[in-house]
Amino acid sequence: MTYSYKTQYLPIEKVFRDPVHSYIHVQHQVVLDLIDSKEFQRLRRIKQLGTSSLTFHGAEHSRFSHSLGVYEITRRICDIFQRNYSSEQLGEDGWNDDERLVTLCAALLHDVGHGPYSHTFEHIFQTDHEKFTVAIITSPETEVFQILNRVSADFPQKVASVITKEYPNPQVVQMISSQIDADRMDYLLRDAYFTGTEYGTFDLTRILRVIRPYKGGIAFTMNGMHAVEDYIVSRYQMYVQVYFHPVSRGMEVILDHLLHRAKELYEEQPEDYLLHSRLLVPFFKDDYTLQEYLKLDDGVLSTYFTQWSELGDSVLTDLTKRFLMRKPLKSATFSSDKDKETIEHLKLLIEKVGFNPKYYTAINSSYDLPYDFYRPEKDSHRTQIEIIQKDGTLVELSKVSQLVAALAGQSQGDQRFYFPKEMLQPTKNQHLDLFEETYREFQSFIHNGAITEK
């Protein structure tokens, strides 16, 4: 019997050994072909956690391994739905397994558009990884598109519509993008594993036992509510302890400032960058193609940083050395408008001892909602987590969980003022006698890691 490419199964299931899920099971030829595509293989060269690997030294894992993990969790959910909750059994509340392939491909490719040090890079060059993901999936010039197009002419657009949340079946969209989806479940477990932070773990097996499809999307049974609570708390802990870690953010600030400085120097002497940093020139010019974007990865940027550390510009040289040698900026929290006035004074003190505040200071804010519920007054809202009660009716999670209710709608994070470490610990190379009073004055505003009034 012959099979169309759409339904072609591998003669023998392919497996990838994985430290989080034990094995990643690949059964479809199209999925294996996508994994082997050059656009997907590029994800091996992009770290999942960016600058966090400079705080948690084990966090060297890539977006490649995360994407495989999201695929695997999605595959397991599809198996559970088809075995126990198919549309043949439940009608419109059930799962139609004809949706499997588009769901698996969207899960695998959901991060394929990420760039090097993605969030910092996006901020500086105004790129959007989701738009690049859609472009990679739908542009005839990519291997990914050519593979998807062999399934059917409209298949690339179907996969892209899952990423943009326009796909008509909410079960498919919520499996990959919601407040408890395959993406979040994998990155929490994977990031916890590689950073060594045990409090980021939760019971994935139990969650997969209690997950259910219904006409409006995905829900969880009441007897599994505590496993969902555990997931919410784990997500909260990971954001506070890992994703918002002040040292990682301090390294992000340096990365941001050194790229800004390089862009300024390019505008002054563009011919120099054509010689030593050619792949970044289109982004300095804000005139780049998809193929030029796909040439970038963490290694390309790191190579350029090494070259920049030996250029004549003292600011760029110093910032790149601080980044490559892991010399983060220090920080202090602040909260009030009065503190902002103090910060302006602190910037003057920093400038007085020889640091340009434009490149050596920053205000960095990080906030996230551990869980949110539907808010009709908001322009945009998150898909809330639904719990199935014994009588089959749905209730929003925070209505039945006091623990989640305490976290719901509460932003977690802080505001920090970043500055050179030398302001607190002057080195022998600095003019200590000349600026001793300046250092003392600066330090008098910092108490227990926070900005205070004198």
Automatic annotation (TrEMBL):
Q: Which CDD domains does this chain map to?
A: HDc
Q: Which domain of life is it from?
A: Bacteria
Question: What protein name is recorded for this chain?
Answer: HD domain-containing protein
Q: Where is the HD domain?
A: 63-188
Family annotation (InterPro entries): dGTPase-like (IPR050135), HD/PDEase_dom (IPR003607), HD_assoc_2 (IPR045509), HD_domain (IPR006674)
Supply the source organism for this entry: Enterococcus larvae
- Report which residue ranges the record marks as coiled coil: none
Q: Which residues form the signal peptide?
A: none
